């Protein structure tokens, strides 16, 4: 190659800014990361966001703005894994790097199962930011490359020339729209047909004996007559070449009905100029075997103008990473006047790297003298990237099998186990892996229905994890409840299913304990509500009768004790109800406050309602909150206290004109058991806080303008 070799760095990353969205709830650390990446790595722009929910909104609102997401794992509202799962729903291919200080095999396993692009643990020093920048740059370059390759596939689909691929047995694996139209077939009907279908019977032997052998030496090109589906014939310029895996590439151009005039040489040259793959001719008789012809596809592939190509040896496409062995094989083939096919890294005019499948073949005249060498250039960057991705899948699988704390199994589309890790074997009590390999999934998981499972696997999107629960049967017949993360992978053309099984026995025991606790709570509520309240109501009734019959100083003390017992029962029932699910609906605050005041413990107190708001609340829990605050005001402010309920900009308030609550006690008033009066239960304000938290609200205690206590509840 003339001059200095092109840069190894991607041309895209040199000319296009990489926009990164960094999600981390620590603003100081996020700012530090942005500073390091932007200051020391030119071409990277970072936007930080502390709230994962807001980050999702940004991704939705600016669907093309970010090239990569970098996220912490341990965040209060949403973990990095949960954020990753939500991002994958919006943008499945967007690079996502988990950059976390919580490094564990469990987190890494979950990240892989959720489809993370890369996983990096936070460390000390500047090196961690350099490593992060390299990981981001590599991920984004692969992301960009896949997008551009998808566009290239679209170009093939819409090309005017017919292109088809046949397997090693000669059956059609793929053909573009143009090829289908030329041959008069529906594309779906043409897939699977043998090439003999498109030839007249008397020409099949010619293809076997002449065309295909020549194609195997490099490439065959000529004019061929084809039979269309309707029986008519067309004549088209036809090219044949084999790939290294034995597939046959066929190109068709300039079709004409049989019997029309033959194409002129200039038209044929024009057709070759428009071929969908790069074509060059070199003159071995001249010094350094220079290029004497290059078609349009070659210039598009390499980025060079024809004036920059003609007269030069093809080595100008080589660079620092070009394989010397591949180049040596090409030189040997040229020296020996033979065909050859190699795959090697080449470089475009702008310095970007691409993988090139180069096929060369000598062309001889009628006397057997070498005239030219023809070279075909195919961009196989995408297939190489897919191979690299498969290699990464394999690396991830190896890491999972060796290090995952979970049980890992791989089965095929028929449900037959292909492999399991040691954790899987040990957990199920088997001595060897061979004792499990070959079993069917439903042999181990009694919850699986074979027919339903096969249908589910067939429709499962590749590389899209699905989560569900099942059971695994141990060798002794006992079962383990498991949470299953299932991913469909395509390995060497075979569908395999990776199942990451997590033992959730402890979780199930907790759930059973919770159910038992709820049953006990129901029984407790029943006892308190019926077995205790009834006798107390009887006792209070009898006390009223006693008050009419005699006058005793003990009557009021007994009445006070009854009221305290009533208050305790109400508070205990409120605590029990707090375990229930909160169901919100639009509620008029003034209406509920007025209803609550009808149960006020004194007739001398005054309620002043200044609210016009309708709020979203569980009406029963809101009633409990207001009743407790009103009762608290009467207990501390006296029988003549005035209680006000009103609106604030972001919620409502309840205040009184009593003596207030000292600042030294405000931090403890919501704790269970805290009371400053003989009548108090110590649970009233604790229940208020539980109601507030159940709604996702906030509560603050301050001093009212008149000196009493003021409780402000923020509901927004």
From TrEMBL:
Superkingdom assignment: Archaea
Span list, region Disordered: 654-681
Entries under CDD domains matching the protein: HATPase, HisKA, PAS, REC
Enzyme Commission number, as recorded: 2.7.13.3
Entry-linked Pfam families: HATPase_c, HisKA, PAS_4, PAS_9, Response_reg
Sites of 4-aspartylphosphate modification: 72
GO biological process, alphabetically ordered: phosphorelay signal transduction system
Domain PAS: start-end pairs: 154-203, 264-337, 393-436
Kinase keyword on record: yes
Domain PAC: 340-392, 466-516
Enzyme type, top EC level: transferase
Limits of the Response regulatory domain: 19-137
Domain spans labelled Histidine kinase: 527-716
Reactions that this protein is recorded to catalyse: ATP + protein L-histidine = ADP + protein N-phospho-L-histidine
The UniProt record lists the keyword Kinase: yes
Protein name: histidine kinase
Protein source organism: Halorubrum pallidum
